[in-house]
User: Which sequence fits this backbone?
């Protein structure tokens, strides 16, 4: 995905959430750049390392993969000790799940972030890059959305991330913690869970067992950023010498696209002619739905020169090809919930 970035060569780096969609791509990019990577994956009784289990053998062999949980402060302190840079991506991100398990979101997203901040402070970590989300803005009140846009927790998930973001700012201001926050807009790409609209649409389009495409609200708009570009944003911010601690940096394309238009483009790429129907299970409560998101990433660009490089159509094509390969290999469903 992202190319070799030698700015991290020889650096001791901790990546939390390395078993996830973006985290696995980031951990791999850091290894390719020569970093000494400790990759934290969520502990489970199956011994799974998430998406890291599908990393190339030569990449995975160069990581120190640890199973654990950000809710355990003592373990986080032990893992952060000796690290020069922490990329904190571990989070509970399911918006529908947050409606029924808000406390879990608070425990993981706020308390987990607090544990990492305390660990970074105790270990004198030189740079802490925290992961936010564009969901904290709620529906755009002004476009594009700059970092000074009002925060609006339209779901328990969004509220928990606002709390985590504020904790990062508080530690930077109160303790001088060298922490910055990257706020990616809607990242998409290979390995993304079917809880997101692009992968679930692709899988249903390609899966012969699906007679129709079942999706949620197609009228909302989003700023879709390909995962390789989001990874480059993490790397850029992690290496930026002039980054302002306690500050938030958006990462997005600045292009607003309706979900319905994305589905149409995917239909053209896949040759899909199945009907699309509304699935009640994928609709958010009326006042919880974020209607529009589009990024102003000028602050990150001014600091680092970062700009997205992958056009939406090219990224969608890569996603479709990845799904074709998974289906051909008999692994079309990594998670359940929306297949029919």
Assistant:
């Amino acid at each position: 995905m992202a190319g070799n970035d030698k700015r991290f060569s020889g650096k001791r780096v901790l990546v939390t959430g390395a078993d996830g969609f973006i985290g696995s791509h980031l951990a791999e990019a850091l290894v390719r750049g020569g970093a000494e990577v400790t990759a934290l994956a969520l502990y489970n009784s199956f011994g799974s390392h998430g998406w890291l289990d599908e990393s190339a053998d030569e990449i995975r062999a160069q990581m120190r993969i640890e199973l654990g949980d950000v809710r355990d402060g003592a373990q986080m302190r032990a893992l952060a000790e000796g690290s020069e840079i922490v990329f904190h991506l571990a989070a509970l991100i399911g918006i529908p799940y947050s409606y029924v398990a808000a406390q879990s979101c608070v425990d993981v997203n706020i308390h987990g972030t607090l544990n990492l901040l305390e660990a970074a402070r105790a270990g004198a970590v030189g740079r802490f890059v925290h992961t936010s989300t564009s969901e904290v803005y709620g529906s755009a009140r002004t476009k594009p959305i700059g970092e000074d846009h009002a925060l609006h927790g339209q779901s328990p998930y969004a509220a928990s991330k606002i709390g985590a973001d504020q904790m990062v700012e508080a530690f930077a201001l109160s303790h001088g913690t060298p922490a910055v926050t990257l706020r990616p807009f809607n990242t998409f790409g290979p390995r993304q869970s079917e809880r997101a609209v692009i992968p679930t649409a692709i899988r249903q389009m390609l899966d012969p067992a699906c007679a129709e495409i079942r999706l949620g609200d197609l009228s909302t708009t989003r700023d879709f950023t390909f995962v390789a570009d989001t990874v480059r944003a993490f790397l850029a911010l992690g290496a930026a010498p002039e980054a302002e601690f306690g500050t938030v940096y958006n990462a997005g394309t600045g292009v607003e696209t309706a979900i319905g238009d994305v589905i149409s483009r995917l239909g053209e790429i896949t040759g899909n002619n199945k009907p699309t129907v509304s699935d009640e299970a994928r609709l958010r409560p009326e006042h919880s739905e974020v209607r529009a998101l589009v990024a102003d990433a000028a602050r990150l660009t001014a600091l680092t020169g970062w700009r997205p490089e992958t056009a939406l159509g090219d990224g969608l094509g890569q996603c479709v090809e990845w799904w074709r390969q998974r289906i051909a290999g008999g692994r079309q469903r990594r998670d359940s919930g929306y297949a029919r």
